[in-house]
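Standup notes
- DV: blocked on the single-chain target, sequence here:
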Amino acid sequence: MANESGMQDLLQELELQREELKRQNEELRQSEERYKSLFQNNHSVMLIVEPETGQIIDANPAACQFYGWSNPEICSKNISEINTLADDEIKAEMKLAKSEKRKSFLFRHRNSTGEVRDVEVFSGPIVFGNKTLLYSIIHDITERKYTEREKTNQSNILSNLIINLQEGILLEDSERKIALTNQLFCNMFGIPAPPELLVGGDCSESAEQSKGLFRNPEQFVADILVILANRQPVFNDALELVDGRYFERDYIPTYLNETYNGHLWKYRDVTERKRIELNLIKLSQAVEQSPIMTIITDLNGDIEYANPKAM
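- DV (later): unblocked, structure below
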């Protein structure tokens, strides 16, 4: 009886193990089905890559369409045949992805026609059996990168144009932080730092700090406050400095989609022009008050000017 009881227990144990194995196999099958569904039917470009060698293990239909190869063709390739980085750089990046130290990467991938596309890759480890592979999702960002590059050539051209103007330039954002300035501005205001180090600086107290340079310091500060409050363009605003120089100032508010986002100050040193104007005024006054008769005619002999003594 004991033997029969032991045999029954053994059979029950075997049956339980068989049921457990059946359950695990069913779970594995369902898991594989879910994986296939997620992988095969996904509209995102997906690759599975062996991280040690770079061999492409699998590619979903979206990847085949994106790269222009059939599944057998793409699975016969190494990722180095697609990625434009050098082999050692690719291995270093895959090592980072496998260790999960980085999850997103910016690469340039080559397709079947030789065209190179900018891509953003999200990659991480996935376990198949006893092997760890890399599961990568690829997004084509070529158009985005092109737009970014275009905005950056345009921004650089504009910045270089502003920086190289023969005027002192100060561009502030809406919070009065310096966005751009040039060397001439620094020279005009005696600022010892190079212009690139001023970017990001706070200009909210700059008028108060530099008012000592001007003949009428309090008026200089008051005028700036009024200009900033009105946010209306101002041109050829005359400024006299204590050292004998004369500046002209323009203020131009800037708007993005009708929203105020900062302003541009432009300063010109007009000292020589101002001195000539003052000398001409002095000369005119001297001629006007001269006891000597003075007459100025044009080339035809017609009188253009006569001082009081000539009347």
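- Follow-up: The CA atoms of residues 144 and 172 lie 28 Å apart.
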